[in-house]
Design goal:
single chain, alpha+beta, Phosphorylase Kinase, domain 1, Transferase(Phosphotransferase), domain 1, 5-stranded antiparallel β-sheet, binds purvalanol B
């Protein structure tokens, strides 16, 4: 770790502190993620497996590149440092920036389209390796402002270390991007959970505010139901047999175009397909790349 010179603390992620540092050998900036693992003896083999998977996946330009993994013993405690390429902001900060008291201006539509394409590429890449992200949100999407690049960070750690209810800093983990099947306690969930999150992020870029800002699991479901209608067996076969299903108020589906008025009709169509209740009918990340919404995107840049 002597190779790296800490510059400043970037912030606190779900799994630990992130520092901006300079690699003395190359002069490049890197991001050091210090992971405090809750355990007594060494690093669990599942975590190591996940880190090696991360190394494989981060060969994609849409995934933040993991440069190396260093374990350091400090005062008898084993610390894990993940060394990543450094990006200059996250999507949350990017969406919030240039917004004064109230600024409902969407991000430029071409930028939303480009970010969505890169995000779908990243998620499709993970899914093709059988990896779920499970915690996609603007805060763990990193942005290279000068190049207009968006990359997924924090990949797969959700599975290696299990998603905590709270970060180690006691900040509450956000529910805003959580798929309804997860909120309803489904036992087997899969890749559609990430596509739901992508849909929520899509709407948030256009609205510059979260689509479903729930403050508890029940409130989160009610936000979803109020916009998309209370699900039933026709919309989503099997929904009433899920573990946490209850009787809810009956809402009718509202217009998505009205909820996200700055999106183009093809954007609204793609969003609707990402926010399908039935996970089996939700569009896949790979299919989303072929949606007409991306027809007029200059893909040569990717
Ligand atoms: N932020 C890997 N990584 C990063 N993780 C976070 C990064 C980063 N780069 C590589 N970069 C920045 C730099 C500056 C700012 C922000 Cl938000 C992110 C700024 O202040 O505008 N993680 C942060 C959390 C620590 C808050 C964002 O998720 C380690 C993936």
């Amino acid at each position: 770790m002597e190779r790296y010179e800490k510059v400043e603390k970037v912030g606190e992620g779900t799994y630990g502190k992130v520092y901006k540092a300079k690699d003395k050998n190359t002069g490049q900036f890197v991001a050091l993620k210090k992971t405090r693992l809750e355990m007594d003896e060494g690093i669990p083999s599942t975590a190591l497996r996940e880190v090696s998977l991360l190394k494989t996946l981060s060969t994609s330009i849409y995934i933040v590149r993991l440069l190396s993994v260093e374990h350091v013993e400090k005062k008898g405690k084993l610390l894990l440092y993940l060394v990543f390429e450094y990006l200059d902001t996250d999507l949350k900060k990017f969406i919030d920036s240039g917004r004064y008291v109230i600024n409902v201006d969407p991000l430029p539509p071409k930028l939303i389209q480009s970010f969505m394409y890169q995000l779908c590429k990243a998620v499709a890449h993970c899914h093709s390796y059988g990896v779920l992200h499970r915690d996609l949100k603007p805060q763990n999407l990193l942005v290279d402002k000068s190049k207009g690049l968006l990359k997924v960070g924090d990949l797969g750690l959700g599975r290696a270390f299990t998603v905590p209810l709270k970060c180690y800093t006691h900040e509450i983990v956000t529910l805003w991007y959580r798929a309804p099947e997860v909120l309803l306690g489904t036992f087997h969930y899969s890749t559609p959970v990430d596509v739901w999150s992508v849909g929520c992020i899509f709407a948030e870029m256009a609205k510059r505010r979260p689509l479903f800002p729930g403050s508890s699991e029940v409130q989160q479901l009610l936000h979803i139901f109020r916009l998309l209608g209370t699900p039933n067996e026709n919309m989503w076969p099997g929904v009433t047999r899920l573990k946490d299903w209850h009787i809810y108020p009956q809402w009718k589906p509202q217009s998505l175009a009205h909820a996200v008025p700055t999106l183009s009709p093809s954007g609204v169509d793609l969003l609707a397909k990402m926010l399908q209740y039935d996970p089996a009918r939700r569009i896949s990340a790979k299919a989303a790349l072929d949606h007409p919404y991306f027809d007029d995107l200059d893909k040569s840049q990717f």
